[in-house]
Every structure is written in C-alpha cells, then in structure tokens.
Amino acid sequence: MKIDAVLPPGPLDQIPALAREAEDLGFDALWSGETQHDPFLPLTLIAEHTHRLHFGSSIAVAFARSPTTLAYTAWDLAGQSGGRFILGLGTQVRAHIQRRFGMPWPESPAAQLREEIQAMRAIWASWSSGERLNFRGKYYALTLMTPFFSPPPIERPKIPLFLAGVNRALCRVAGELADGFFVHPFHSPRYLREVVLPALQEGRQGRRRPGDAVEIAVTALTHTSVEEAAFVRQQIAFYASTPSYRSVLAFHGWQAVGQRLSNLAARGRWAEMSALISDEMLETFSTRASLADLPQVLRERYEGVAQRLALYLPFSGGGSSDQWAHLVEVIHA
Fold first, then answer.
1. What's the rounded Cα separation, in Å, for the pair 47 and 78?
2. Which of 1, 112, 234, 243 is the most exposed place for a label (fewest CB within 10 A)?
3. With a threshold of 0.70, does the pTM exceed it?
4. Beta carbons within 8 Å of 177's beta carbon, 6+ residues apart
C-alpha cells in the first residue's frame, strides 16, 4: 500500500519546504486540491523542488475547464517532472459548476466526463505523433491543432489520469478509462466494497481491462481525540447535506438525516448540523484510534481494497514530522 499526503490550502511560498519534507519522510505522492486556490500552481513548485515524489491534483474541477486547457497544463507538468505528475479530475456538483464557476451543468455528467477524457487523450496523441487532431463528440468537437500551437513531444506522454466520484455512474467511467480512482472522504469501507468496487469492475469489464487497471486511492477521515471527533462530525454533516452524496446515506439507511441536513444547509444553519451526526455515523464514516495505533488501524481497515491511502488531515510538516514518519513506516511495512 502506498501512503500519500495532501497539501494544506495556503500561500505558494510554503510549497517548496512542504514538498521537500514530504519526499524526505518517504511519502509516495503529494496532492493539491481545488478549494481556496488553483490546484495546479503548487504542482510546478513540487516538480521543481523534489526528485522522486509523485504529485497531482485531487481534484481539479473538470467542468470548469476545457479539455484543451487541461491537456496543455498536464503536458507541461508531466514534461517538467519527468513523468511524476498525475492528473486528477472530478465533476464537482451542479450548484458549484453553475453558481461558482458560471459554467453549464451537463445533462449527463458521466457522459461529458467520459468525452472530456477522450478528447484530452486525442490531443495528447496528436502532440506525440503529429497526426491531425480530429475529435468529434456530443460535447466537444476538436479539429484544429496547428504546429504553432502544438508543444513538442515529452519523454512520457501517457499521463496517468485519476477520477473522483461517489455514485455508480462516475465509478463506471473510472473503470472504463481511468488509471486510478479517488474514493471520496465521505465513504464507509462497506460502501467501498459493495458499491464502488463493483461499479469500477463493471466499467473495466465493459472495456475488457484487467482487474488491476485502476488504482484505488482512499482519503480517510480519522479522529484520535474528542476535538478531532467534533471536527469530523462537522465534515460528515457538510458532505451528507449534499444531495449528490445522499446515496452513501441511503446505503446505510440514513436518508432522513440527509434531508434534514440539506434543509439546515439551505437556511445557513451550519452550526446545528453536526448534532445530527450520531456516534454510529461517526464510527461508520471515520476511523477512530489512538495517535500511536492509527496507522495500523487504517491499514487493517483498508487492506485488500485500496492501493493508496491518505489522511483527510492536510500534511503540515514541522513539529508533527515524527507522527507522519510513523504513519509512512507502518503503512509501507
């Protein structure tokens, strides 16, 4: 099992030191998310200041960008790093696409994401081989790529692509086309085994891909103290209030809680939401252990279902280095 770290949101000038420390501690990859900052800008600094560490976006919002824009960014990062870059994409949800990014929400998110991936790979193939770009689909028609706008080939043009999702449709797309799959932090091991993995398998079988074609990457909610448990309750309440993620609650029979959370969120009553997260829900969606035992408990929880593991807690470095080193050592053992 590989062990990864997640960058905290913050200024770009902190990235070089965090990246070097993550590499020195033995992490396999360092991920940058799209929350308060652009997900790609930190990655060029990681590429510059590390030598072994893989890195990527977890996730960049696909529907906020054209396939050509994504293709250029990924090509440059892969070239700069000698092939250590991983492109991680997700759809986000309707409200954010329409009201935060000002972009249209597709009638079928899974179908558009599938086509966006195919379009990117057609662009990369054109740059690698010099062949004429001729991609025509329902959502994208890309037929113009002159030499002036084509970057030169790179050493490793097969850029790894990870997708994120919660529901079956996006899991199937990942099984069809992706190299890896980000399991949403709002999950349970049972949901992972009984919903996510079978849907990935359906996608793989539809394309006759081997069973190990898609690497499973888990970001785990954890709590080692009363204070952390309170924070995790807030995060679970936030995720569970999103209608797109309600299938996770429905799987466990907690649909009514999800509706109540959505009603509170719609009225901006965020402070009241975590009280609806019971101890049973906390234990289902988060891993509880002492700080010393957490690495082993996580390994046992996800053994056999995940190939990569990261904590929801961002990598802070500095004074907590010993704890991170222990995590890396146990997971790698």
1. 9
2. 243
3. yes
4. 114, 117, 118, 161, 163, 203, 207
Both structure tokens of 206: 């539809």
Residue numbers of the chain with a pLDDT score lower than 70: 319
In a domain, 249, yes or no: yes
- For 107, residues 6+ apart whose C-beta sits below 8 A from its C-beta are none
Give pairs for 125-131: CB < 8 Å, separation 24+. Answer: 126/150, 127/75, 127/151, 127/152, 127/153, 127/157, 128/153, 128/157
Please name which of 265, 270, 320, 330 lies closest in space to residue 295, comparing C-alpha atoms. 330
101 domain residue, yes or no: no
Q: Is residue 252 part of a domain?
A: yes
Looking at residue 319, its pLDDT comes to 66
Domain containing residue 277: 225-287
Which helix (H) or strand (E) is 161 found in, with range?
Answer: strand 161-165
Dihedral, CA atoms, 233, 234, 236, 240, nearest 10 degrees? 130
Residue 178 tokens, joined: 């992706």
CB 183 within 8 A of CB 306: yes
Q: From CA 285, how far away is CA 242, in angstroms rounded?
A: 15
Quote the crossing angle between the two packed helices 67-81 and 109-129, to the nearest 10°.
Answer: 50
Q: Is residue 251 part of a domain?
A: yes
Separation of first and last alpha carbons in the chain: 9
pLDDT value, residue 40: 98
Query: What is the model's pLDDT at position 188?
Result: 97
The pair of structure tokens assigned to 321 is 């280095």
| Number of domains within the chain | 1
- Contact indicator for 84, 51 with CB cutoff of 8 Å: no
- Is the omega angle on the peptide bond into residue 123 within 30 degrees of 0, that is, cis? no
